[in-house]
TrEMBL record:
Residues 91-159 form the BON domain. Residues 1-22 form the signal peptide. InterPro entries: BON_dom (IPR007055), Lipoprotein_DolP (IPR051686), Transpt-assoc_nodulatn_dom_bac (IPR014004). Keywords: Signal. This is BON domain-containing protein. It comes from the Bacteria. The keyword Metal-binding does not apply. PROSITE patterns: BON, PROKAR_LIPOPROTEIN. The keyword DNA repair does not apply.
Length: 160
């Protein structure tokens, strides 16, 4: 008959053996040991990362193309509107400058302060005029400038 102490020792030995066997089955696969194996593993990992990056880049490009298709016409429309507005402002400034220069060349109007304002090609003349004829000439001069669509002659003839 086997003593109780021997039975416990035997059971403990069997349990330890079972644990050791189980743990040996759980070990990770061994790392490459040769330089060639390490290089091959690095190449494989690089290929995997490159494939992931390629997939992400394709997705980003597709998203960008979708946004461009959706927002492109809006951006183009806004750019055209801004260009049109800029052209109008430049045209209005050029009209104002040309009308002012023409008034400065007129001997009766050159010494008098006349305000010239232009918006969308519509010219407004404000200030004094030495005579009714000079007031009329100022209006005609403004109408003769390229780009003027209308003239609001608010010049006031000086009396006495």
């Amino acid at each position: 008959m086997i003593s109780r102490m021997s039975l416990r020792t035997c059971a403990s030995a069997i349990a330890l053996s079972a644990i050791a066997m189980a743990m040996s089955g759980c070990q990770k696969s061994p790392e490459p040991t040769t330089v060639g194996q390490k290089v091959d593993a690095a190449i494989d990992k690089t290929k995997d990362v490159a494939a992931d990056v390629r997939t992400e880049a394709r997705t980003a490009l597709s998203d960008a193309q979708t946004r461009l298709n959706q927002d492109g016409p809006k951006v183009e429309q806004r750019a055209k509107a801004a260009a049109t507005l800029t052209a109008k402002v430049i045209d209005d400034a050029a009209i104002t400058a040309q009308v002012s220069a023409g008034l400065a060349r007129d001997p009766d109007l050159s010494a008098i302060k006349i305000d010239v304002d232009t918006k969308d090609g519509a010219v407004i003349l404000r200030g004094p005029a030495p005579s009714a004829d000079a007031r009329e000439r100022a209006g005609q001069l403004a109408r003769g400038v390229l780009g003027v669509v209308s003239v609001d002659n608010q010049l006031v003839v000086k009396t006495g």
